[in-house]
Amino acid sequence: AQAGAGDGKVNIGYVNATGRDLKAVTIPGDLGQIDCGDSKSDPGLGKLTLDSMGIFGLSTQGSGASQSSLITGPTKSIAVAGSFASDLRILKISKSAGLLGKVVIGGDLDGTLQNDAKLTAEGSIGSIVIKGMIKASAIAETATLQADDNIGKITVGVAPAKGAPAPTGIVVLGVGTDSAKISADGFSKNALGRVTIYGSVQGGGDNSAQIVAGSASIGKVLITGDFVGGAGGDSAEMNADAILKSVTILGNLQGAGGSNSGSLIGVDGVGKIKVGGSLLGGSNSESGFIWGEGAPIKSVEIDGSVTGGTGSFSGSINGSSIGKVLIKGDVTSSTGPHSANIISDTFLGSVNILGQVTGTAAHNVVIMAQSAAKPSKTADVAIKSVKIGKDATYLDILAGYNGSNSGDFQPLVDGNASIGAVTFGAGLSGVNIAAGVNPSDGKFGNGNDFVPVAFAGKPIATIGKIVVTGTVDATADATDSFAFTAQLVKSAKINGQKQALTKGASNDPSVPVSADTIIQEVT
Q1: pLDDT tens string 415-437
Q2: How far is Cα of residue 415 from the mean position of the Cα atoms in its chain?
């Protein structure tokens, strides 16, 4: 109770109830350390209610002081009004399910105060709410949340008032290695059920600011700001060992200096990805990267633009198959091989880019798929459709090619692969559209293209329809050559003019559409 001029609060250094269960602990002040719980399966602690935990470090404790607390057995709830800066671990006795019920931290999970701030459960956690930041220091493994089973729901930051703009300030800040990391090794369907972050996530050192599900899926993620990598490898990486089901980032998905920084990865598949800002590559490989790691991607929608970086595959989208891609802005490559590319190991559904596509002579933009998911004797459609809303420069649309090579030109692996329809809303220059054709010298349209003997016969590699609303212009390099090429090009319309093509396959060896571009049916 408050006496005299006091504030009615008290800071407790250590609650030592080792081997004993506690029903409730309430401290109107800071708690430095707590040990409790016996070896039975009943709750080791009912409710823990504090003003703060560990913010004074060891200064409130005596000899043998420690920042590490241990609760043995299930714990119903932890409520901390202010910041949490301690190291608290919940040990399971038998079952991992229901080990820690509910956690509410009214301030920060603050690794900067004592180079600590870890909350770990050897089983599942029902829900975690952190109303402040997850804020790491330069020391490794500070400000972390870890469950050896699943975490049902995590919320960081505060939801905006009705009608107010979505928060964009940094609320998850990784600095040191493995810091500001949210991870669950769930044995259930979703290791992480729902993750909501009201603000931005910023990576720093290796593996910092990660959202990771080991052995299972991540259900639904909403980030109202940016998801940005740092200098460390795998910083600001969202990675599900199973399926990354649904991710919405209202700001940018952005890579940086670390490999795989600012990336979204699903080992067994990626569901729906929505980026309200832009996809931005960084200076290292696979930074600013959306990846179905040998697995399918259902859909990707980007409201802004896609811009590659200097790292290979930076600012790119890659999956074993990709259902649908919608990019409302522009797509621009950089100096990194495969930067700003869309690559499917098998089937690619629809690609719709509302803006312009700008590659370079050294590093063109590539939209590529290898083959139909299940090719038949009559059809092997690798790319269903591609639409480009505005001008396109140095772009390759390739069916039948493999995306594993480190260079921009890929080897032909399926000479029967086809493309459905390709439409350009304006003009183009330096563009190849190729289905099942091998350019022996790395250039299409110069008389050296062919279909390997191994792919002779049906299904015939086909381009169904090509429409170019504007003109096809030659590049400034007189040595360039480009082609719209397959065994069969069914129809083509350039600048309002239908091109005169002979019916049937391999009947049009060279129909010029500009000084350096031809329609070409090969044998």
Answers
A1: 999 999 999 999 999 999 999 99
A2: 32
